[in-house]
């Protein structure tokens, strides 16, 4: 009897303790449009604790009982305050009202999650508003070119949109659009990225201290989330610029239930050049280039606990040359036309299901299909007309490569209390690689010809778990584990990757952070120039060529003073399993297996990064400085000795500022400085062995001797960009004019260097530059 009583009492006490725990949950969105406010902050002044909204705007905050004094806030929005005493689990969906320019007094109130309180390091969010306001090459706003201005990120070459993060290559960046990897994010041979800023809700760059939920790349994560569409009314915006125009329309299909967003962008370089080329060739020739992007998304709210999303992106680049003519020989007339060109592009689709399992457990299921393909083609059509009839010959040849993915993943977030934020999940990707195939066919040959590697199928899978937890009021850590595997051609690679990030809060405005991560990458990018050209080939790890692996450790400090964020970080990274073409090998060696054309090596990178940033107020922007050193080593290159990576830069400075000096006018500037890229130039020359000339005679060719790989530096790179915008509200909406100047003081920065001779026969280095001073304008509108 006594034991039964004690058991009953224990049950009652446990029930009472459980009853005292109350969870407040819901979503945080923008008033009017219904867009998720990713990373919005919830702060309880009573308990001095809070929560953060995830990438779908969902939050969960658990208390022991009693009253709460909640502040819901996000940068650029008015803070909302709620005071009440919840008796049971409570659902509260909050809408925040956008604020034009935050008053200086408001800034000191509870804002979005403070940078010094976040556990992870080496992570930066750039507001979309800042991205749109900064000067842009030819007036084309580009997310990647703004990310290049951040410490630890290099652009590669003049004007390019590639990202080289902490000594890594472009293939080592995990670029996600609504959770789907993007394999080629470049337009116009690398000068623009595929992301239309008008269709984007959030951009986050992670350079180190990677959370366990990310995997598959070594150097960075660029997590880009599309807008979801206005739930209340139809809205739109667009712009007309020098080389491209774009338009975005969003609105409800059914108010408060289903919304859509459609966004399109296209260049018209081909349309502008067409009449000029045709006039010069008497209508016989047509040369052109264009690219386009299409984004679409549907967001459907099933009920308060279930939501469905379907998003699609497609975009292509095409460069072509068409020529037609005829000739007459005796009684024969031959008409012929030829087209040569290249085309490349992405297709990405994702279906997502968000499910609130209960107030503390959130799930997201994603099913995706994506494709990247490059085509180099030549088609010749000849028709000969004689008295006896017509004879036709059609010949075509094509080189193509690409990668297709089918993927499924499940992600869960469990928030038992404010001291723990647990994430776990799994992912599987079915890859199909086409690593370079040449095909030709003709009406005059019996069999079609096909050369090159056959398609390769691989399976990549992963599991992860992490917990972001408070050890004490000042000490917080994120501890996680990421397991991944790769099954390819009978070989199964496995990788267990521990991840650790910790933060110690020195005081309310200052913290010290540290991180240690290991990463694995099972796919490689074969590249000749490193410009993000479409000829770059994606290939999998094989039994002969293993995966890439990396280890990175970092230490940093962060301070927040009156809206200014200051950070300093040092890092050290090692990389193994890197590949690059051997000397003389290219993607055009179609009769060779790509595995025989590459060398395998290692790399290391270390540096110091300083950043001062302000995201709000009339004057916003950042000043960044990077000191770094990056080296590579391959047994079959540079005599097996370490050499500087091509995009190694010892010093890098970037200043990006926007000043909204009136309610309808703003001025922005960007100034960058960087140590020149490393290049290989010969140090000696001598005569080679005597050789016979074609047609008789002999000669001794010049042989150039390279002391080492990347043994010289280009001159330093620097430029200044300016932009001025003014806008006016009309009855139908808003119109905006933007004038910009790229490279204001006409600095002729090196694009590449070459050796030549002067008039006296002396050897000299010639610098080739790409962009002089370039003015631009655009007309934007909103309705």
Q: What are its keywords?
A:
single chain; 783 residues; mainly beta; Immunoglobulin-like; Maltoporin, Chain A; 3 domains; 22-stranded antiparallel beta barrel; 5-stranded mixed beta sheet; 5 helices; 51 strands
Structure description:
It is found in: Cell outer membrane. It is a multi-pass membrane protein. The protein has 783 residues and is mainly beta. The chain is built from five helices and 51 strands. The protein has a 22-stranded antiparallel β-barrel.
Task: Summarize the model shown.
The chain has 783 residues and is mostly beta strands.
Topology:
Elements: H1 2-20, E1 22-30, E2 41-44, E3 49-52, E4 58-63, E5 68-73, E6 80-84, E7 90-91, E8 94-96, H2 104-107, E9 123-125, H3 128-133, H4 143-147, E10 153-154, E11 164-165, E12 173-177, E13 180-181, E14 186-187, E15 192-193, E16 200-206, E17 220-226, E18 235-241, E19 244-254, E20 258-267, H5 269-280, E21 285-303, E22 306-329, E23 332-358, E24 361-386, E25 389-417, E26 420-442, E27 449-452, E28 456-470, E29 475-488, E30 491-507, E31 510-521, E32 523-526, E33 537-540, E34 548-561, E35 564-581, E36 598-614, E37 619-634, E38 643-644, E39 651-662, E40 665-674, E41 678-679, E42 684-687, E43 691-692, E44 698-699, E45 702-705, E46 712-713, E47 717-730, E48 733-742, E49 750-757, E50 763-769, E51 774-782
Keywords: Cell outer membrane, Membrane, Receptor, Signal, TonB box, Transmembrane, Transmembrane beta strand, Transport
InterPro entries: Beta-barrel_TonB, Beta-barrel_TonB_sf, CarboxyPept-like_regulatory, Plug_dom, Plug_dom_sf, TonB-dep_rcpt-like
Subcellular location: Cell outer membrane
